[in-house]
Design goal:
Layout: E1 2-10, E2 19-25, E3 29-36, H1 44-62, H2 70-92, E4 102-108, E5 111-117, E6 121-126, E7 129-133, H3 139-145, H4 151-156, E8 176-177, E9 181-182, E10 188-192, H5 194-209, H6 214-229, E11 236-244, H7 254-264
Antiparallel strand pairs: 1-11, 2-3, 3-4, 4-5, 5-8, 5-9, 6-7, 6-10, 10-11
Length: 271
């Protein structure tokens, strides 16, 4: 398992940073997390921290060195984090449980498994193009899917920040899962809060992460998101991984296959 990873979180134009992000890895598994505490409720930062801590603790217990059931691990982690937020709210005497989004990705055996609740996103980029991304749990996303508004209208919609699934609060989260997704060499997986993808959009995310090491591209992308958002911008958090040594991006040619067969048989194969 070989990869390069970088993470960064900034306060943006807000008074405090309610985002939390983390990654952990064992010899055979890698966990990526981004949580965005919901600013419309008190103590969003507490909810985000509890969610991240819960998943990290679970990973450290179960990844020995791999997790037995990746999607089961994610489901238990999300539901357990939701319950943990409620317990913390009760102990601290909060009037109501704080709330947070959460997006998580578990990679092992070269296969990515992810889940999310809310509008923090995961992007999978391959050869500079978006191969897959999560769909926001928001009213605006539903309007887009129904064809009632277009992308430009979505950016200006007055309810663009309202989501219908999160961790914390009275209702259990609606968790959406990916399929098992094999990773190819040089694939990029990026997890981010809406303070990043909101100003940049899908095209900006793809262009910003297409080339270069995560340690170079993540700060540059956050700089651009902050510039576009201006002084009233949201918290910004981005965690990016470039996968190395996975499946080749291009299928081998017939000549390549013949040379490989010849090599296996101990034949030169060039004459």
């Amino acid at each position: 398992m070989k990869f390069s990873v970088y993470r960064e979180s900034r306060v943006g134009g807000r008074r405090s940073n309610q985002d939390r992000l983390a990654y952990r890895y064992s010899r055979k598994a890698l966990l990526l997390l981004v949580a965005d505490g919901m600013g419309g409720y008190a103590h969003g930062d507490v909810a985000a921290q509890v969610a991240v801590d819960h998943l990290v603790d679970a990973f450290e217990r179960h990844a020995r060195p791999a997790v037995d059931e990746p999607f089961g691990f994610l489901a238990d982690g999300f539901n357990g984090a939701h319950a943990a937020i409620g317990r913390v709210a009760g102990r601290r005497g909060f009037g109501e449980a704080p709330r947070t989004t959460l997006v998580a990705c578990l990679i092992q055996d070269g296969i990515a498994h992810w889940a999310h609740a809310g509008d923090s996103r995961l992007y999978l980029l391959r050869e500079g193009r978006i191969q897959d991304r999560t769909q926001d749990h928001s009213r605006v996303q539903l309007l887009l899917q129904q064809g009632l508004i277009d992308d430009d209208q979505a950016k200006r919609h007055p309810e663009r920040n309202r989501i219908f699934s999160c961790l914390g609060g009275a209702n259990a989260p609606q968790i959406e899962f990916s399929r098992k997704t094999p990773l190819y060499d040089q694939d990029v997986i990026a997890l981010c809060s809406d303070g990043v993808w909101g100003p940049l959009g899908d095209e900006g995310m793809a262009q910003g992460l297409a080339k270069g090491r995560p340690a170079e591209r993540v700060p540059a992308l956050l700089d651009e998101a902050e510039r576009i958002a201006g002084p009233g911008g949201d918290n910004l958090s981005l965690l990016a991984v470039r996968w190395e040594g996975g499946l080749p991006c291009e299928a081998p040619s017939d000549d390549d296959l013949l040379r490989a067969i010849a090599a296996i048989r101990g034949i030169d194969g060039t004459g």
